[in-house]
Design brief:
Layout (H helix, E strand, L loop, with lengths): L2 H25 L6 H31 L1 H28 L8 H22 L2
Helix pairs in contact: 1-2, 2-3, 2-4, 3-4
InterPro entries: DUF423
Membrane topology: Multi-pass membrane protein
Organism: Herbaspirillum chlorophenolicum
Length: about 120
């Protein structure tokens, strides 16, 4: 993804995360168990962090540029979809098997942050 696309996708994800956070706090509070609300909150938290991460990557791309930063943005988006998405579905449906794919999203987040750090390191040489 290029800088503009990362900012747009990051902003859309922030919008979705704020909506999900409000929905969880107000709409789901009386429907879901405390355990499922915690899972919902975790999904929102990670979506917010990584949507902001995508925007940060876009802002860093002119300085460090390159394919690695683009890959980092793509991995953050994949992480949001897989990690937060699976947790949202788990909280709403109670289908525990969805928890088995959540770590794949976590690995995508980890790889994205490593690429950001590596890009900065390579850019400082």
């Amino acid at each position: 993804m290029n800088e503009r696309t990362l900012i747009i996708v990051g902003a859309i994800n922030m919008f979705i995360a704020v909506c999900c956070g409000a929905f969880g706090a107000h709409g789901l509070k009386k429907i879901l168990s405390d355990e499922m609300l915690v899972i919902w909150h975790t999904a929102v938290t990670y979506q917010v962090m990584h949507a902001l991460g995508m925007i940060a990557i876009a802002l860093l791309m002119p300085k460090f540029g390159g394919a690695m930063m683009s890959w980092a943005g793509n991995l953050m988006l994949a992480g949001i979809v897989i990690f937060s998405g699976s947790l949202y579905l788990l909280a709403l449906t109670g289908t525990r098997v969805l928890g088995a794919i959540t770590p794949i999203g976590g690995v995508a987040f980890l790889a994205a942050w490593l690429l950001v750090g590596w890009s900065a390191y390579k850019g400082m040489r």
